Amino acid sequence: MKTLDDAETGIFHAINKTSIDLFAYFDGLLAEKKFDINTYEWLLLTHILKQPGKSQKWYGDNILRDKTFVMRLVDSLEKKQLLGRKPDGKDRRRNLLYGTKAGERLIRRTLPYIREDYRFLFSDIDEKRLSITISVLQNLMAKIAKKSKDDAVQG
Fold first, then answer.
1. Residue 85 forms beta bridges with which residues?
2. What is the pLDDT of residue 34?
3. Helices (H), the chain
4. Angle at 149 between CA 143 and CA 151, to 5 degrees
């Protein structure tokens, strides 16, 4: 299977390289426009603003990053006064995250640039092909999650 075996053009390389390149591209865009936020911080903050009041672990699971990385992002966003932490009333060990007004303003200011470049990047990919690509990747993620869960139960 050429898509699996070829290190330069295989699926692992394509997915990894695309992810790295997208984050670098949007980091550059945010820096060029003088926004004091990187792409991972932006992604986490948008998740927090869409679904406020969840734990760091919940957001980490949703942006697919480990606990330590998310903690660094949260510390950075809090230092920039873009989010706040509130103790969980049910579990003192957990903090729930909320965006601040400054965080909301920053995301509102960045969205036009993000959307414009997003449209540019995907402009020559028709909806059907993009939909199929997303579906294939979601299928892979589901299979990996199921296999990992099955292996954990057996192990």
1. 97
2. 97
3. 2-5, 11-32, 39-50, 56-63, 67-79, 101-121, 127-154
4. 100
In DSSP terms, 55 is beta-bridged to 96
What distance in Å separates the CA atoms of residue 127 and residue 133, rounded to the nearest whole number?
10
End-to-end Cα spacing for the chain:
30
What's the pLDDT at 8?
A: 66
Give residue 10's pLDDT.
Answer: 81
Other beta carbons within 10 angstroms of residue 125's beta carbon come to 11
Residues for the chain: how many in total? 155
What is the pTM assigned to this prediction?
Answer: 0.84
In one letter, which amino acid is 51?
A: Q
Which residue positions in the chain have pLDDT lower than 70? 1-9, 155
Tell me, rounded to whole angstroms, the distance of Cα 109 from its chain centroid.
19
Beta-bridge partners for 14: none
- Residue 69 vs residues 59, 60, 63, 87, 108: alpha-carbon distances, Å: 11, 8, 11, 20, 25
Residue holding tokens 């949260």?
A: 74
Nearest-5° Cα angle at 125, 123 to 129: 150
